[in-house]
Structure formats: structure tokens, C-alpha cells
Amino acid sequence: MQTLIRNATLLTMDGPEGAVPIAGDILIDGVVIAAIGKNLVAAPDARIIEGQRKLVMPGLINGHTHSSETFLRGRYQNMPLEVWLLYAYPLLMGPAIAPRLLYLRTLLLAMESLRNGVTTLCDDFFDPPAHDLERLGTVFRAYKDAGIRANVSSAVMNVHTLDALPYAREVLPQALQDKLDFGPPISAETYVDYCRSAFSSLHGMAGRLNFMIAPSAPQRCTPDLLVACHDLALKMRVPLHTHVLETKTQAITGHLMFDKTLVAYMHELGMLDRNTTIAHSVWVTDEDMELMGKAGCSIAHNAVSNQKLGAGIAPIRRLMDAGVTVALGTDGVSSNDTARIFDVMRVAGLIHSASGPDYGTWIPAADILRMATINGARSAMLEDITGSLTVGKAADLIMLDLDTYAFMPLNDIDKHLVFSENGSSIEMVMVAGEIVMRDGRLTTVDEAAIFAEVRETVPALLTEHAELERLNRVFDPFFAEIHRRASEEDVGLNRYAGDAPAWRASNWR
Known about the structure:
Blueprint: E1 2-10, E2 22-29, E3 32-37, E4 47-50, E5 54-58, E6 60-65, H1 81-88, H2 99-115, E7 118-125, H3 133-146, E8 149-154, H4 168-171, H5 174-179, H6 188-201, E9 209-211, H7 223-236, E10 240-244, H8 248-258, H9 262-268, E11 276-280, H10 286-295, E12 298-301, H11 303-308, H12 316-321, E13 325-328, H13 341-351, H14 365-372, H15 374-379, E14 397-401, H16 413-419, E15 426-431, E16 434-438, E17 441-442, H17 447-472, H18 476-488
Parallel strand pairs: 1-4, 1-5, 6-7, 7-8, 8-9, 10-11, 11-12, 12-13
Antiparallel strand pairs: 1-2, 2-3, 5-14, 14-15, 15-16, 16-17
């Protein structure tokens, strides 16, 4: 079936001038964009959508999120990452959540994403205590039913939590250390076998769902697991998606564990290349950025989450200048509290003006839009499929009403989108040629029924989670001490002060 959107304002994000709006039509044939131009002619039975006073642009891409946090929205604040993890991802774990709740938490994230213009997301979900193909399939099924495009993986780690944190063995009493028996760690061979099964049974589902490989972080995985993950990612041509240098504690970790930065350690293992996507990248050195740029790496800039957790401000301008592809991510909705990339765009467009007095280096709105679209696609290794309005690419797009407060009066569209819009102007969302949201209504899911089921079933889960929080609170003062020690450490880490000028680096505590 063909769809013709005619007489619209188009923001193609295709090529160097992609952030400049043009007037025209867009013809969609099946799942792909067939033509872009003026006065296009469609088949007699084509669906016609009038585009006057409408803006059509590529769907937004969430380069990094965790569906495992969906039910923990609005639960925590004023906690650094190392303390927050105790509650959002308890060390003393309960049983894995029921399959239906696993489905619901994934579906709810997809629903919120689509409503707010995100047509592709990269979900690094956590599902203790083991990697299970059937449960992974439940996550895939939720995304399939919602109609979204997604890269999906369940994060893997096989280094004991206390051995991946500086000072932990020194700070925690032995009695508490003895409580943390996670059983035998997963081997590289076992995880690779799991990944191969995922590739053979789930990868490519519905033509828009892929499996990616996600070692949690270099300090949380043994070298053989990291290398095995990287080799398989190259073989399967999928992203290697990991967390690197989110906090100063992690910067200290690299020096104490490997006598080098975590990025330099990854480089030493041969893990930096086109497939590598790094979430956060806050406490990177100039040498790190040079390595990442030469390797063609991508990062997912989680501008909102990093501020909520007090992690710092990633040096985005210097990363861009080094040749690193910068995408945007919400992170999970517990460390962000929404799945809206529009929020991340606004924050990213604002915080980097604190990088110093040279305002010529501040990040323009057009670059922020690229991060949210074509750069996000590149970080997900999907730039040949989505991320721009380009003939031959998938018809992943959103249509916004220009007769709203966010665009009234209309000046520069890129600045309106970054600084004024919050997703409320979205009238239509399309993924692979299918309209998944129109006139404020999701077409693939009964929102009222899902909300009712969440209200009915999730409170019991949260009651159980509150008990886990209580049990894990015993670790709180010791993890706070780890955070304090790392924040006061001085081993030349003033270079890790993000985009802050040198005169402010000493304040990054």
C-alpha cells in the first residue's frame, strides 16, 4: 500500500543541509520511502495525508535505555550512581519478575516512546539472575506488538560487583561481603552460545527487531568475555553496546584495576571500532577521545540521566571534534523519569553552554537534531535503514502540527524542536510504513487496558521491591563511602571534567 503525505514541511536530516526545512511531498510504498519531491503522484488507492502546516521529520532514536527500570519511575532522587544502583538494581536480588510483568514493562516503555516520537530504541535490559532465551523472546514480542524498531540485549557481567568497584573490598565489612554470593559467573563460552541462539531465533523479527551484544562495562567483565563479545559483534555486524566512564568512581576504577583509563583498556583489548557504542563517556581524557575518534566509535549522550545522578557533563564538543559519533539516550526511566528524547534534546542543547566563555564551541540546535536522528541510527548500526528521510530507507517518521505554542510564531524550526517542543505537537508516528500513532491514539495497543493492568498488577511488585530496598539499605553507607573516596581522589583526573573549563575542574567532586 502507498501513502502520500503532500504539501508538508520536510526536515530530511539527509546530508549536510538536512536540518534545513523544505516544502514538498513524501511518497511511501510499503515499508520504505519511494520518493521525495513536489507534486508527487501516488497510486489510485493510496492513502492521502494532507501536510499543510505540518512538519514531517525522521523518527527520533533513543540510543540507550533500560526497559528493566520502567516500573521505577519517580522513585529515587539525590543519589549518585553507585548508591542508586543499590535500590534500582539491588545486590540482594529477589526472584525474576513474572513473564507477564516482563512483557508489560517492555510494552509500556515502547508505548511511551512511540507517543513521544521515538521510532527506534536500543534497550540494554537487565533480567537477573540468568540469561534466558524465552524471557528475551518476551521482550522482543512486546516490541513487536507495539510496532517500534529496536535493538535489544540483556546486559552481561561476570566480575563480582565488589571487584568492579574501587575500595569496595576494603570498605565493606566481611559479613556483608559474605552476603553477596551470586553463584558461579557466566563464562564467555556460555554467553556466546546464548547470543548465537538469540541470533538464530529472534534477530530480525518483524523486519525491525535486532539482537545486539551488551557487555555491561569493561570493569564488570573478564577480558575473555569482552573479546568474545567483540568478535561476535563484528561477525554478526551488530553493535557492541556498553557503559564506560559514567562517573568519577569509574575513572578511578580504571586506574586502580588496569593502571590506565577504561577506554585505553578497551583499546588494548582491540574493542574500539565502528561497532562500539559507549553509553555516557563523561570522564574521558583527550587521549581517550582521540582513540575513540580514530576507531570510529559512537557514544550515547544521556544528558538528563547524567545530571540526575550527578555524574557530570560529557565533553560533547571535544568528542565531536575528535570524530566520535554522538547520539542521544534517555537512559532508564528510573534515572531519567521519562522516555522522551525531546527532553534530552533540550537539556543537551542547554548544558553545554556552561562549557566556557567561547560560545563558538557551544552545540547548535542542528547538531542536537542530528544526534537525535541520523547519529542515533549510526550508533545503532542502522544508518542505512533509518535516521533520515531518504529514498530507499524505511518510512520511520513523525508528523508534528506547526499550529501549536511550540512553533508560534515560527522562526527557525531546528531551534523550535530543540528548545520549545516536548512531543505534544506530534500528530502521527509511522514505523516501517505503518501508522502506529495518529491523532493522539496508539493504533497497535489498547492504552486504557494496559494502564488498567499496570495499575492492578504492579503495586504488588513494588511492595516486593520495597522489601528489597530495605534489605539492601545496609550497604548504603559503605557505597556512599566509596563514592566519597572516589570524589576526593586526585590522580590527575582534572582532565576528566567534561566540557567544564579548567578553572572549574577542581569543583567536580
